[in-house]
């Protein structure tokens, strides 16, 4: 999993592909664990100028970062996504696509990752269908110099197979949770971004 300090948001005029990769990486960091103070401060201080759905969603995340702190987010993250027993909110693709964790969608994902020479770090407890891991894979497919796998066709196929069937449902679940707070803003940014990605892939 990419560490948070390597991530930053870039405006489209700094390179659309770089901005896409960075936003995937940022979403991975925000969904994987409660953000550290440094990341919260960086987002809070970022530019929110501009128009459009994505920029509006980004402004809401920046505002949410200015209104919270790492300890509060740690407690919120644990209550929403970890909890005791079954979490309030699931971040795993297999759950949304099959109704259960560790099901056939995860097996299909692992087969595709194996074909690309990618595998989960042994120190990461979450299964590969966690939204953070999938965002990290998309970041790699955009930013990597691996011409065999990191190309638009592979991005489109991977997104269609392993993200598109469920990510909007997951985002809506977070947005609609009455206690989601900060993560509702993150989920709205993710939803807006994923919808833009879907439209772009449809036109590719």
Automatic annotation (TrEMBL):
Key words of the record: Chaperone
Signal peptide segment: none
Matching Gene3D superfamilies: TorD-like (1.10.3480.10)
Entry annotated with the keyword Chaperone: yes
Name of this chain's protein: Molecular chaperone TorD family protein
Xref: InterPro entries: DMSO/NO3_reduct_chaperone, TorD-like_sf, TorD/DmsD_chaperones
Source organism (scientific name): Noviherbaspirillum album
Database matches in Pfam families: Nitrate_red_del
């Amino acid at each position: 999993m990419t560490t948070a300090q390597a991530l930053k948001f870039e405006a489209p005029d700094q390179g659309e592909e770089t901005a896409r990769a960075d936003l995937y990486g940022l979403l991975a960091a925000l969904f994987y664990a409660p953000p550290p103070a440094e990341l919260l401060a960086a987002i809070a201080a970022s530019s929110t100028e501009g128009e459009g759905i994505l920029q509006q969603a980004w402004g809401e995340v920046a505002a949410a970062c200015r209104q919270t702190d790492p300890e509060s987010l740690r407690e919120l993250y644990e209550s929403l996504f970890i909890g005791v027993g079954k979490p309030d909110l699931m971040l795993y693709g297999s759950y949304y696509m099959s109704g259960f964790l560790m099901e056939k969608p995860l097996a299909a994902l692992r087969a595709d990752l194996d074909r690309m020479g990618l595998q989960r770090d042994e120190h990461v407890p979450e299964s590969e269908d966690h939204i953070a891991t999938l965002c990290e894979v998309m970041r790699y497919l955009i930013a990597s110099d691996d011409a065999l796998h990191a190309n638009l066709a592979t991005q489109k196929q991977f997104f269609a197979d392993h993200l598109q069937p469920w990510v909007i449902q997951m985002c809506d679940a977070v947005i609609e949770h009455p206690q989601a707070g900060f993560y509702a803003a993150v989920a709205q940014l993710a939803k807006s971004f994923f919808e833009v990605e879907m439209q772009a892939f449809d036109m590719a």
